[in-house]
Design brief:
There is one protein chain. This protein is of the alpha+beta class. The protein is 32% helix and 26% strand. Strands 4, 5, 6, 12, 13, 14, 15, 16, 17 and 18 form a 10-stranded mixed sheet that branches. A hairpin with a 2-residue loop joins strand 9 and strand 10. The N and C termini lie far apart (52 Å). The relative contact order is 0.18. Bound molecules: flavin-adenine dinucleotide. Flavin-adenine dinucleotide (FAD) binds next to helix 1 and strand 9.
Length: 502
């Protein structure tokens, strides 16, 4: 086995998370030596690929599951506000890179697409109205519009209104400044930018197969997937940005903090339409409510997607079950992740989540006609021949020890870091790519704490003039940063508040 030279940082996986962290670290310390190791033959081949995720720039504008309703009818907006400001942090980083001039065009990865919420029935309408009343008082959502008027809805969603019964009870909200993000294009742009810097390497068709403690750092074993050759690289810091496959690598590290975690893979499918006659009638991401008992990521939505300059429509997701942790993974992924330390939490989750199991079974058993019926709740006149089924990316939800329940299933993301800050892994999938930058800043503050407070503080303040906490409360600053970001990312024209749709 070849023993290679040492680097400062090894990043496992070439998805949006590793690509963002690598570029951020290089901005903070241009002398840092780093290597990205990817098992596929290109970047963004798993969840970050544009057709494996929905490309929603999650900002809490339309996702009804971010604003839960309590039994007394009140609506809690904390999560929506937090995700909104996290997205502004992502936009600050993309704006900073775009302004550098060497990063390439932002039009290849971000497009303005209005974000709408759409509800049916009396209880849906009263929820949406209350949500609007509370949210629109917050500066981040001040531009939100609400309507129960079907004429107005026909203007907002022309594809979705014909063919409905006149007595259907409906309501919708709209925010014009939503976005569609091609996270695959963004990832590859970040990777290209990275390789133009000295002391950085992105290696494809290489699988990380093991991790061993080595003094204060790690020895990483890497296998060439084409010829089977292996080599070892020493690194002071390792990031496990392997998406669904981060869990087994975290377990292989043996760090104390990895104990008790398990993973629950949920696969997904979409209906996709490329017929230009249909596509041109819908310019929006329209989110509705999830069915009772279904997990939050199954919220149905009908989306405009902008990928490689072309528009399509995506509807779904339809959930499914598989034991693979990656779309290109192995059916043994789940069984091989079972350990003495996580079998308790995993069994507790299986026992306590029968609703989810039932939901997944019903989703897997659906026929194409049943899938089209779900689509017709949104688009009553949908024709089968315009739509085809596509497989989405894998989400591995986190299973964690819980003192009361034994184990819980968590639908967010969790950054797990070694106490000495020499290794970190990202588990979970939601809200995902949109908030990558905030998650990677959290990693830097945890694992590079002294530098973040010391020699990197000035550069961090230059790239990020306002972080999420202050944006949540300072309305004037929010408006200033939001406007600057929207102009830099060409989402609005200078001196105009109107989004510049393609
Ligand atoms: C159906 C679906 C819809 C989604 N919709 C949205 C959305 O609308 N908006 C949003 O913001 N987010 C969304 N997400 C979430 C988002 O896609 C993910 O959070 C994000 O892409 C994760 O990026 P990542 O870099 O962690 O993982 P990935 O993009 O999966 O990258 C991990 C990489 O690691 C590589 N790898 C794995 N194991 C190894 C190994 N041992 N050695 C070397 N390389 C390895 C893989 O090949 C892969 O390239 C969605 C996800 C799914 C599945």
């Amino acid at each position: 086995m070849a023993h290679n030279e040492a680097v400062d940082v090894v990043l496992v996986g070439a998805g949006i998370m590793s690509a963002t962290l690598a570029v951020l670290l290089k901005e903070l310390d241009p002398a840092i030596k780093l290597e990205v190791v990817e098992l596929m033959d290109s970047g963004a081949a798993e969840s970050s690929n544009p057709w494996n995720n929905a490309g929603t720039g999650h900002a809490g504008l339309c996702e009804l599951n971010y604003t839960p309703q309590a039994a007394d009818g009140s609506v809690d907006i904390k999560k929506a506000v937090h995700i909104n400001t996290q997205f502004e942090v992502s936009k600050q980083f993309w704006s900073y890179l775009t302004k550098k001039g060497t990063f390439g065009s932002c039009k290849s990865f971000i497009s303005p697409v209005p974000h709408l919420s759409f509800v049916q029935g009396d209880s849906g309408v009263s929820f949406l109205k209350e949500r609007f009343n509370v949210l629109s008082k917050h500066h981040a959502f001040a531009d939100m519009e609400y309507t129960e008027d079907k004429g107005k809805m026909a203007e907002w969603m022309p594809l979705m209104m014909p063919g409905r019964s006149p007595d259907e009870v409906l309501a919708a909200t709209r925010v014009m400044n939503g976005t569609d993000v091609n996270f695959g294009a963004l990832t590859n742009q970040l990777l290209k930018h990275l390789t133009s810097a000295p002391d950085t390497q992105v290696k494809y068709c290489k699988r990380v197969t093991g991790l061993k403690r080595n003094g204060n750092g790690w020895t990483v074993s890497i296998k060439d997937v084409n010829n089977g050759n292996t080599r070892e690289v020493d690194a002071k810091f390792v990031f496990l940005g392997a998406g669904g496959a981060a869990l087994p690598l975290l377990q292989a590290s043996g760090i104390e903090e990895s104990k008790g975690f398990g993973g629950f893979p949920i696969s997904g499918q979409w209906l996709r339409c490329d017929n230009p006659e249909v596509v041109k009638q819908h310019q929006a991401k329209v989110y509705s409510q999830a069915a009772v008992g279904s997990p939050p990521m199954s919220v149905p939505h009908l989306d405009t997607r902008v990928v490689d300059g072309k528009k399509s429509l995506l509807f779904g997701p339809y959930a499914g079950f598989t034991t693979k942790f990656l779309k290109h993974g192995s059916f043994m992924d789940l069984p091989l992740s079972v350990r003495a330390g996580n079998i308790g939490p995993m069994l507790a989750v299986a026992k306590n989540n029968m609703d989810l199991t039932k939901y997944l079974v019903s989703e897997v058993m659906q026929s194409m006609e049943q899938r089209l019926d779900s689509l017709r709740r949104f688009y009553p006149q949908a024709k089968a021949e315009d739509w085809r089924l596509e497989v989405a990316g894998q989400r591995v939800q986190i299973i964690k020890k819980d003192p009361k329940k034994g184990g819980i299933l968590q639908f967010g993301t969790e950054l797990v870091a070694a106490k000495d800050g020499s290794l970190a892994a990202l588990l979970g999938a939601s809200p995902g790519a949109s908030v990558t930058v905030s998650i990677m800043l959290e990693l830097i503050e945890k694992c590079f704490a002294d530098k973040a407070r010391g020699e990197w503080a000035g550069k961090l303040a230059e790239i990020f003039p306002a972080r999420e906490k202050v944006l949540e409360t300072d309305a004037a600053l929010y408006r200033k940063i939001n406007t600057q970001n929207n102009i830099a990312l060409e989402l609005v024209e200078e001196n105009s508040e109107t989004p510049s749709y393609a």
